[in-house]
Design goal:
Layout (H helix, E strand, L loop, with lengths): L6 H7 L1 E2 L6 E2 L3 E2 L2 E5 L7 E3 H9 L8 E4 L12 E4 L1 H9 L19 E2 L4 E2 L1 H18 L1
Antiparallel strand pairs: 1-2, 3-4, 4-5, 6-7, 8-9
Length: 140
């Protein structure tokens, strides 16, 4: 029978601590580090939560472990803080690059129309329609 390596040992072996953040270099899901719990059927664990539990202590029931550095792959306990879901989400919404803070389309025009789920740029829409019309006239 194969000897199991403790989860903490496997975790530490895959962390790059050369910078301020302790970057997880293994598998990721949506930017968060994931590591197997150890056996078949035991599932995976988020690396930052495992690191918190191993070095700091139990995570209180109902709390998320928030990345203060906004780096999802970071496992440095100094960059983590247990907070309620509302606080975690609110902090994430203010992060640089969040969709709500982007005011310009990829071509640099100001978004000027929006729905509940989309933002649209009238300038790009008009340019695309004009290009399509010219292409159709050239093909005819």
């Amino acid at each position: 029978m194969r000897q199991r390596i403790p989860i903490f040992d496997r975790l530490v072996a895959r962390i790059d601590a050369s910078g301020v953040c302790w970057e997880w270099t293994g598998a990721k899901s949506e930017g968060y580090g994931v590591i197997g719990r150890g056996g078949r059927g035991e599932g995976n664990a988020l690396t930052h939560r495992v690191m918190w539990e191993q070095l700091v202590g139990r995570i209180p029931e109902g709390l998320d472990v928030d990345h203060l550095c906004r780096n999802r792959a970071c496992c440095n306990p100094d960059h983590l803080e247990p907070v309620d879901r509302r606080t975690n989400v609110a902090r994430g919404l203010r992060r640089p690059g969040y969709r709500g803070s982007i005011l310009h389309c990829p071509r640099g025009h100001l978004y000027d129309r929006s729905t509940a789920t989309q933002r649209k740029c009238s300038t790009c829409k008009n340019e695309n329609a004009r290009a399509l019309r010219i292409a159709k006239e050239a093909a005819a």
